[in-house]
Amino acid sequence: MQQLAVDLGERTYPIYIGPGLLAQPELYERHRGSGQILVVTNDCVAPLYLDRIVAALGEPETLVLPDGEAEKTLARTEQVLDRLLRAGFGRDGTLVALGGGVIGDLAGFAAAIYQRGIDFIQVPTTLLAQVDSSVGGKTGVNHPLGKNMIGAFHQPRAVIADTDVLATLPDRELSAGLAEIIKYGLIRDRGFLEWLETHMDGLRARKPALLTEAIARSCRNKAEVVAADEREGGVRALLNLGHTFGHAIEAGLGYGEWLHGEAVGAGMCMAADMSVRLGWLGEDDRARAVHLIERAGLPTRPPRGLTPEHMRALMARDKKVVAGQLRLVLLRALGEAVVTGDFSPDTLSRTLVGNAR
Ligand code: NAD
Ligand code: MG
């Protein structure tokens, strides 16, 4: 098992990574409140893993929601709150989120607002959730008018990432998680990027020791960024490499067509392309990044049918437009990203046209 900390003063919490952790009672015991426990999961994960966690926790309350991003709603959050109230949970209760990022975001949000905040423990079961969504304290749900528009910052008491559960993850979901892993290498950790180049095939073969190492190094990177900028006033924005292009792809296709990580894969290739056009990144470095993303099983260009004009219009609506100016995360080098609005609209256009299929 590997253990690291997200350093946030008195709210500091550990991330545990390794095989078999789901079923280890002492990990929960160390971080739960003194009251009741509710495990929230979904109907995809429950048949696979709910038994193990229930055995480890004694007789917790359990709530199984329907699977899917479309269920990440206020209505489902209310269902969690109803259960907590009906079962008589007090402020000493603990919520355990067992699932991917959807369950983690939703259950975390319920924990943030129930009686103004109760303890919660993240037990992420997708690679994406283990390296990204379970760490950092962003919780929330979607609104019909926008993704993740309702939410709160609420840090978990612990993150328990059991690498055994990745065995049942579909290949596409594994690749989507690898996109965010590659992202950490590209934005701030060249050594890790080189390690990924060496071990990508083993990661896709799900070699347990390699997965543990990749998750730990990813979480260490995210934890450092979050510790420096918990509420995204500065460096935390670097975590959005490839995401402005990616969100345009997701929105242009209709959400759910490509997985988020797939859109981010193509988006990171576009960010690298633009960095080359600005003279910031060498062509050989761009090619290295694209090759690694391809080896992860990810697309390296936007989908057919999404025109440069449409992409540009969608990007102009991005959250990161400040005072009418689009800001992008671009690469100064492999392992070094910057947030910048310092580019001409023409450079962006050439990237969009150059990458269209
Ligand atoms: P997800 O939670 O929908 O999980 C993907 C699919 O895999 C689902 O069908 C799920 O039921 C299934 N699944 C989960 N674990 C499994 C397992 N071990 N074996 C087999 N199937 C399994 O999606 P995700 O990619 O984990 O998370 C995406 C969500 O995370 C989005 O809602 C996104 O907004 C959010 N997110 C949040 C943050 C944050 O900082 N809070 C960061 C990134 C993403
Ligand atoms: Mg992302």
UniProtKB/TrEMBL annotation:
Q: Where in the cell is it found?
A: Cytoplasm
Which cofactors is this protein said to need? Co(2+); Zn(2+); NAD(+)
Keyword terms, alphabetized: Amino-acid biosynthesis, Aromatic amino acid biosynthesis, Cobalt, Cytoplasm, Lyase, Metal-binding, NAD, Nucleotide-binding, Zinc
Q: Does the UniProt entry include the keyword Lyase?
A: yes
Q: Which domain of life is it from?
A: Bacteria
GO MF term list: 3-dehydroquinate synthase activity
Associated pathway:
Metabolic intermediate biosynthesis; chorismate biosynthesis; chorismate from D-erythrose 4-phosphate and phosphoenolpyruvate: step 2/7
Enzyme class, spelled out: lyase
Q: Where is the 3-dehydroquinate synthase N-terminal domain?
A: 63-175
Could you say which residues bind NAD(+) here?
A: 67-72, 101-105, 125-126, 138, 147
Q: What is its EC number?
A: 4.2.3.4
Query: What does the entry comment about cofactor binding?
Result: Binds 1 divalent metal cation per subunit. Can use either Co(2+) or Zn(2+).
For the ligand (Zn(2+)), the binding residues are 180, 243, 260
Q: Which InterPro entries match?
A: Dehydroquinate_synthase, DHQ_synth_AroB, DHQ_synth_fam, DHQS/DOIS_N, DHQS_C
Where the record annotates domain 3-dehydroquinate synthase C-terminal, the positions are 177-321
**Reaction(s) this enzyme catalyzes, per UniProt:** 7-phospho-2-dehydro-3-deoxy-D-arabino-heptonate = 3-dehydroquinate + phosphate
Q: What does this protein do?
A: Catalyzes the conversion of 3-deoxy-D-arabino-heptulosonate 7-phosphate (DAHP) to dehydroquinate (DHQ).
Q: Which PANTHER family match?
A: 3-DEHYDROQUINATE SYNTHASE, 3-DEHYDROQUINATE SYNTHASE, CHLOROPLASTIC
| Family statement drawn from the similarity comment of this UniProt entry | Belongs to the sugar phosphate cyclases superfamily. Dehydroquinate synthase family.
Q: What protein name is recorded for this chain?
A: 3-dehydroquinate synthase
Q: Which organism is it from?
A: Spectribacter hydrogenoxidans
For this protein's source organism, the top of the classification is:
Bacteria, Pseudomonadati, Pseudomonadota, Gammaproteobacteria, Salinisphaerales
